[in-house]
Amino acid sequence: MRTYLCLGILLLFLTSCDDGDIIFTSFDFDDQDLKVCGDAENKVFYKIKNDNIFESISLSTDQLATIEEGFISTEIGEITFSLSGENNKLVYRTFDDAVTTDYFCNNIPPSTPRVQQEYKSVGGTVIIITQETASDDIDGDDILNTLEGMATEQDTDGDGIFDYLDIDDDGDNVPTSEELKKLATDPVNADGYKDSDEDGIADYLDDDDDNDGVITRWEVTELNTNPATNYNPTTDQPYYLDKTASIQYEGAESLINTIKKSFSSLIRIQDLKLKNQGGDAEEISFESYTLGTFVSNNLEVTYPLEEEEPTEGEETN
After folding, report:
1. Which of 44, 53, 90, 146 has the fewest CB atoms in 10 Å of its CB?
2. % of the chain residues with pLDDT over 90
3. How far apart are CA 74 and CA 259, in angstroms?
4. What domain of life (predicted)?
5. Is 138 helix (H, G, I), strand (E, B) or coil?
């Protein structure tokens, strides 16, 4: 990162406090987590450092309307806006004591610690690049994406949801994660997956797990909501694994296919200019300054995704 200081000092500078102490800083917050406070309309992203000196750097903005709290964006791509006015600014501060999250997360900042030095942005463009956080198991069913045919867009049950996004790959109303090997005594197929009827087809891909002629989805209700009804009290086995059972829940609704995703957003400021709010009002310039990467909460996504209705005058294929 190339940095230019108006005073001719690269990256580092010295300033004096009211009590005569000398403050030394490099704007280096790389080891600090980027946190956020605020709501969907007004947010403050901040980093705190309480090592050699007590300092913080924060970005406040009203440019990030989000679908729910804890996110910058759930859209892959780039967001840009200018640092201007009181609602969109970057501020660097030093304090006379340790600073906590209360300083940024309360509607009214606490009276302590006291600000000793403050540099506020007088120019710059914020660039936020968001991408989906990589995962080897997107649907969280304990089978890797690659083994669920991610490359070939495999869809075992033909429900329009690829297996690597499907919590129930075979559509039998038993989640894939519940059809994997649990006990050492569980029979398995050649690939090492649980195969209750030993027909060579793993249970999580088999529409009739016990091979009794009644498909599995007719032998279970929604497993996650009422599991007690799925067990034969006589044999202490699930009906869908009990060849002696003659029960059918024909027409049971399918499991709701909801999985969790997270997103990471890199925040960078181009052509940043900061001005000292006291003293001789010196300016500090950065050609490019990286504030950090913000990782979102988990977002629940239900597949298949609902198609947006075309707006008036928009043609559909």
Report:
1. 146
2. 58
3. 14
4. Bacteria
5. coil
